[in-house]
Amino acid sequence: EVQLVESGGGLVQPGRSLRLSCAASGFTFDHFAIHWVRQAPGKGLEWVSGISWKGGRIGYADSVKGRFSVSRDNAKKSLYLQMNSLRSEDTALYHCAKGRYGDYERDAFDIWGQGTMVTVSS
Amino acid sequence: SYVLTQPPSVSVAPGQTAKITCGGNRIGDKSVHWYQQKPGQAPVLVVCDNTDRPSGIPERFSGSNSGNTVTLTISEVEAGDEADYYCQVWDSSTDHPNWVFGGGTKLTVL
Q1: Does B42 reach chain A within 8 Å, measured CB to CB?
Q2: CA A61 to CA A46: how far, in whole Å?
Q3: Environment class of residue A101 by beta-carbon count within 10 Å: exposed (0-12), middle (13-18) or buried (19+)?
Q4: What are the per-10-residue average pLDDT scores of chain A (122 residues)?
Q5: What is the nearest CA distance from B61 to chain A, expressed in angstroms?
């Protein structure tokens, strides 16, 4: 079964850091781009970051650029999101999502994980 | 930044046809993807590249792209189609290319 499972969420104080993980199974992980997409409570979807199949191309939303860093370990079939200088507006459910092809631009996201909740609050 | 505009809500009776629009500047030049998200669940891709249906998505779901409006059409609507629907594009028109989602449309089956 093709699956993405996120972990690492939790309650964190403003200004602190958190690292999310996404474990993949059921497909050839190193052939596809992977993304992070977040959804604040009761709100819509917001793309956070994407990384190409080999990790050579990476993109970030303006709202997280300079604070968040995405990486992948193809040997471990895992994706990571290092989140620094967290703000209350980063509070959201964070999904990882698989791209249909290797580059993170243009191609739709065909598999999504259930997400891990991040709450930034003092 | 690029903006995708969707109606907040659409209502339709079972068996009827639902049309959900997505507007944006020169959206006819872009490849648009559509996602369905039911309460408490992860989004599911229902239409990609304007008109293509991923494997497993019923033929009742179709997409079109003309001019400045893109439309997701759901024929013979069922109660199980009640969900939020989001359109999505890759915007490379600025110095900071990025993925953009519409605000979402809540489909209510009466």
Answers
A1: yes
A2: 9
A3: middle
A4: 97 98 96 97 97 93 97 97 98 97 91 98 96
A5: 16
